[in-house]
Every structure is written in structure tokens, then in C-alpha cells.
Amino acid sequence: MTQSSGLDHESNQEKSTDRVFLAMSSLSVLAAVVAGFWLLGSPNKQRLLALDEERIADLSQIARVLVDYVGNQDASPQPLPETLPDSIQQAPDLIDPQTGEPYEYRRLSDTVYELCANFAYDSQTPLAGNLRSSPLQWAHPAGRHCFEIAKFTEQPM
């Protein structure tokens, strides 16, 4: 009887050790998940940051196409168009990736125009997990923002 009682005690002690190990492991996994979200942000936040990056790439592409459209050194330069050329308006990949709406274009003068988009995040605010960075000339606040661009350049002023 004494021997059986000793085995029960060892068995209870092993169960107790297993429970402690399980609890510690669970807490470690939970801490790793929380740290991951804190460092990288939620999957939704990462998706929104990626959409902002795509918007900048689209606006940059539109600016490059406009430089080609208004002329190069070999031809006489064309004036800035009142509306975006059909080649841009009909490009299925040069629209807001979230809303599907075209980006805003407005001719401000013979030599300056603006391109506008709606952004999820301020590109200058350090956000936990914002490992991406927009080029400085494409810096933007959250919400609607317009970039003024000179006629023969591909970057905002």
C-alpha cells in the first residue's frame, strides 16, 4: 500500500509538472502572437499599407506616361491635357486598388498638374510594423491628398 501511494504521488507530481509546462508554453505562444501584431500590425493594417504603396506606384506611373504624352526632346512638346489621355483612363491597372475608382487629375496651369488619391495612413508617421516607406517626394497624409507635378517631371514638386 505504501508503494502504491508513492506511485500515485509521483504520477500527481508528473501531472502537475505537465500542467505547468503546458501553461508556460501557452503563455509563450500567446506572447509571441501579441508581439507579432505589435511589431508588424494586424493583417488588415498590412493590407492597407500595401494598398497605399500601390497607389503611389500608380500615381508615379501616370506621371511617367504624362511626360511621354506631352513630348520628348525629339518632338515639339504638347500642352498638358485638360483630362487624362485615354491611354491612362482606360488602363485597368491605373485605378485605386481598393475602390476601383480612377485617380483624380487636374490641370493647374500650362506647366503644372495635380494627381490625387485617398490614403489609409500618413506616410510620415512611424507606425509599428510600417516597414515600407514611400519615396520622400511622394510623402502624404492619411486621407485625400494631391501632388503637384511639373509638366516634364515624374516627381511631385
Polypeptide structure, described:
45% of the residues lie in helices and 13% in strands. The protein has 157 residues and is an alpha+beta fold. It folds into two domains: 1-40; 42-150, no CATH class. It has a three-stranded antiparallel sheet with strand order 1-2-3, covered by helices on one side. The longest helix is centred in the first third of the chain and has 39 residues, at 2-40. The relative contact order is 0.15. The mean pLDDT is 81.
Main features:
3 helices, 2 domains, alpha+beta, three-stranded antiparallel β-sheet, 157 residues, rod-shaped, Type II secretion system protein
What is the topological layout?
Blueprint: H1 2-40, H2 43-70, H3 86-89, E1 104-107, E2 112-119, E3 143-150
Antiparallel strand pairs: 1-2, 2-3
Biggest sheet: strands, sense, closure? 3 strands, antiparallel
- Domain count: the total is 2
**Run of helices and strands:** HHHEEE
Name the structural class. Answer: alpha+beta
Number of strands: 3
Helix content: 40-55%
Query: Approximately how much beta-strand content do the residues carry?
Result: 5-15%
Q: What is the tally of helical segments?
A: 3
Strand order of the largest sheet: 1-2-3
Unreliable sequence segments: none
State mean pLDDT (0 to 100 scale).
81
Region (Disordered): 74-96
Keywords: Membrane, Transmembrane, Transmembrane helix
Organism: Phormidesmis priestleyi Ana
Transmembrane segments: 20-40
